[in-house]
Design brief:
Layout: E1 26-29, E2 32-35, H1 37-47, E3 52-55, H2 63-79, E4 83-86, E5 89-92, H3 99-103, E6 107-110, H4 111-115, E7 129-134, H5 141-144, E8 150-152, H6 153-159, E9 194-197, H7 200-203, E10 207-209, H8 214-220, E11 223-226, E12 229-231, H9 239-247, E13 255-256, H10 257-264, H11 274-287, E14 290-296, E15 311-317, E16 321-323, H12 324-328, E17 335-338, H13 356-369, H14 374-390, E18 397-401, H15 405-412, H16 434-456, H17 473-476, E19 486-490, H18 495-503, E20 506-507, H19 509-512, H20 515-521, H21 528-539, E21 544-548, H22 552-564, E22 571-574
Parallel strand pairs: 3-4, 3-17, 4-8, 9-17, 10-16, 18-19, 18-21, 19-20, 21-22
Antiparallel strand pairs: 1-2, 5-7, 6-7, 11-12, 13-15, 14-15
Length: 575
């Protein structure tokens, strides 16, 4: 194992293809013992870090939320200089054909039984099924490994000569079975040691940040007690600090930047440039025991979307800050486990950043290191081109229409049905009636067409993300015409409703896909979660995109659009 340093160590890539599944530890050839090359590649990945970082993964969630959790886990592993362990598989929630068709290609399980939850017990049995699929079908794990030390749970188990069959089905780390083996490249004969970070110790009563910069430690009087963990000097509260505390809302741990500007901003020269004013305000905060933090606002200020396309600043009392690196970077055990769920109610990365540079690095991780698989990228390019053809060679517009929650709510209460069309009642769906929902989408797409006429004249803008280069498509193609067809990505499966969509000018993915597309892509396209990733990638090409802000699917599309250089004026996520 490598000794940790005061900053994350750059990761050196070791080639290991997603399709490789190391199963043999050694092989006997000509009387000599030969190490399995894939296991040796895994050993090389792990040897560059201090140990392993493990999580309890919420496998009952859909793929987009799982991706956000994995992104955060990879960030934590990088901060702690540990190899991040991710689930070997995830669950696809529905099959586009009869369940038995998908079951011929992927293991079918009862989702509630597999993930230890009763959330779907009231649904018909066939609606409770899910399909276990390798995680590398959902994103390009090979590409991620070029910049981050990441292995799957099954790979960890094989490294320790433990059967992959013991991997838990609910995503929880087994603190017993996962520690019974011995690293096959170690001579110690001892199983991997474990340190557990209790869930309530992660960020309860504090503001969790990535790490505490040296300059911050010095001005706050950080007193080290062991390793790098410690406490802040107790200082007398200033009048400005008290004013900032008074401006915080009940139970808030941070102060939004607009409020900071109100409390602090009027003390500064109004003629200052934005950058000099921000620097001056930061200095004032620091002098009064507060610090600037860097995080994300979310499209339309939605926490559910968890996109990284809208960077923001916040402020917090210095004495509330605790660094992930300071608290856990010097743990010596082989496996560091973060127990329980830290996904809900937190910003992307499940922490805040103490420097602009560290937030920018995480943005790059999400936008560029977590890459779609090649077959998804290639198919989305084809589908986008077909939409251009359907739009007469002009720009095309698209929307995400979330309706699947109706299947659950309506199955519990038949009074929620109206003649001909189902009514959705859960908060995740924008309008109760199907007709009203589509009318709302079309109204915003009409506004989008007007915006595209304006954008078409230039100049183009990009999201405030690293390495952003404007996509010039809005300059090269004409804006949509009034009666052009538009694309709808939806989890709606009612045939009456789908016919209604088409009659109103919508194009669905089933209208674009060909038999050759399905053959080229492979069997996994039959699973709705995989199909949804293809739809997200397709919507990343849309000249204009509209969706509900309370959706992780929409947040994923915004991230893809930001990475492609889309103009932020061409997306609307509405609450």
């Amino acid at each position: 194992m490598l000794r940790t340093t005061s900053h994350p160590v750059p990761f050196v890539h070791t080639a290991l293809n997603d399709s490789q599944s190391p199963s043999n530890i050694t092989s006997e050839q000509g009387g000599s013992l030969e190490v399995d090359p894939e296991l040796d590649a895994l050993r090389h990945i792990v040897s560059q870090t201090k140990g392993f970082y493990a999580r309890d993964y919420s496998l009952w969630l859909g793929w987009n939320n799982m991706r956000y959790i994995i992104e955060a886990a990879v960030l934590h592993g990088r901060i702690l200089n540990r190899t991040t362990i991710i689930p070997s598989y995830v669950y696809a929630r529905a099959c586009e054909f009869d369940n038995s068709v998908c079951a011929a290609y992927a293991t079918m399980v009862n989702r509630g039984d597999a993930t230890s939850t009763d959330e779907w017990r009231q649904l018909p049995l066939e609606k409770q099924m899910a399909w276990r699929i390798p995680v590398f079908l959902m994103f390009n794990l090979t590409h991620l490994r070029e910049t981050h030390a990441v292995i799957t749970i099954s790979e960890y188990l094989r490294l320790h000569n433990i059967s992959a069959d013991v991997e838990t089905t609910n995503g929880r780390w087994d603190t017993d079975l996962y520690h019974r083996g011995v690293n096959i490249f170690s001579d110690s004969g001892v199983g991997p040691s474990l340190y557990v970070v209790k869930n309530e110790l992660y960020d309860a009563g504090i503001v969790r940040v990535d790490q505490l910069p040296q300059a911050m430690r010095e001005r706050g009087g950080w007193n080290i007690t062991h390793g790098q963990a410690g406490s802040w000097n107790i200082t007398e509260e200033t009048l400005l600090s008290k004013a900032l505390h008074d401006a915080m809302t009940s139970r808030a741990s941070v102060l939004d930047w607009d409020t900071v500007l109100i409390v602090v901003g009027d003390r500064h020269d109004q003629n200052e440039t934005e950058s000099s004013s921000t620097s001056s305000i930061a200095n004032t905060l620091e002098e009064n025991g507060w610090e600037v933090l860097y995080t994300y606002g979310g499209a339309c200020s939605s926490e559910a979307a968890k996109d990284v396309a809208v960077p923001i600043r916040q402020a917090a009392p210095r004495n509330s800050l605790r660094g992930l690196y300071e608290d856990f970077g010097f743990i010596e055990q082989d496996v560091l486990l973060l127990e329980g769920e830290v996904h809900l109610g937190r910003k992307p990365g499940a922490l805040k950043f103490s420097t602009l540079e560290s937030r920018e690095r995480y943005t790059q991780t999400v936008l560029y290191d977590f890459r779609l698989t090649d077959n998804v990228v290639e198919l989305a390019d084809l589908l986008s081109n077909r939409m251009v053809e359907k739009a007469g060679g002009r720009m095309w517009m698209g929307a995400h229409m979330r309706r699947g929650d109706c299947l659950f709510s309506c199955s519990l209460n038949t009074s929620m049905l109206t003649t001909g069309h189902s009514v959705a009642t859960l908060k995740w769906t924008m309008e109760p009636s199907f007709e009203a929902h589509l009318a709302r989408i079309k109204r915003h797409l009409r506004d989008g067409r007007d915006i595209l006429h304006f954008v078409h004249r230039g100049p183009l803008h990009t999201y405030k993300v690293p390495l952003g280069q404007a996509d010039r498509t809005p300059l090269l193609l004409d804006p949509p015409a009034d009666n052009d067809q538009f694309y709808i990505a939806t989890d709606e499966r009612d045939l009456t409703n789908l016919t209604y969509l088409r009659n109103q000018g919508a194009v669905l993915i089933s209208d674009l896909l060909t038999t050759d597309d399905r053959r080229t892509f492979g069997w996994s396209l039959m699973l709705t979660d995989v199909l949804s990733v293809v739809e997200q990638a397709t919507l990343a090409h849309a000249a204009y995109f509209y969706a509900h802000a309370h959706s992780s699917v929409a947040g994923g599309v915004v991230n893809l659009r930001a990475s492609r250089g889309a103009d932020p004026r061409t997306s609307l996520l509405e609450t």
